[in-house]
Amino acid sequence: MAPRERTRNPVWTDVDNYFGDLVAPVDSALEAAWQANREADLPAIEVSRLQGKLLQVLVQMTQARRVLEIGTLGGYSTMWMARGLPHGGRIVTLEFNPRHAEVARKNLENAGLLDRVEIRLGRAVKSLAALQATGAGPFDLIFIDADKPSNPQYLKWALKLGRPGTAIVVDNVVRDGKVTEAASPDADVVGTRRMMELMAAEPRLSATVVQNVGVKGYDGFVLAVMLS
Asked: Hey, what CATH class is 2-226 in?
């Protein structure tokens, strides 16, 4: 199975594969999407299958009908979430790179999920402003997984496009532990730390961080909910 190729720690990988085989088996459509991403030379940074299943479960737990995804890549995470939508549910997913968006479109079409997804091409901050201007939302679940230096802006937009009860999920916040380095010059770390500071100071949010290890190494998610 292709996702097994991404390994850093044999124990983490074995555990990931054990649980993945039980609760998040990859079918032909997901496998084809993962392979298509590799053939298109997309960065191998999509969520793992257990992380994808987590997103799907969160969609199901929140009974989300309107989902906003910031950062499409090849549509792998989009596919997992789309499968968790109730009848009539929709995902709006934002992607800057036209080539990535085209790969995602084909993957979603091949999986029979394109009718549940709207792919918007362009800089995410402009797409987010356009969503607000046209009265889109409020969204029930917002997944942020794009360029990390812009995470503070994405969080601010999530607050504008959400409502009390909206779930906000942010990927890649631990960054192999580098998030603790206050003096780091890494723009990804700087953006992540600034977002976390904003989140911690925001009275409209209740949040936590879940660290994870597995086939993708050591990282983590922010899980937050907008309060009334």
From this structure: alpha beta
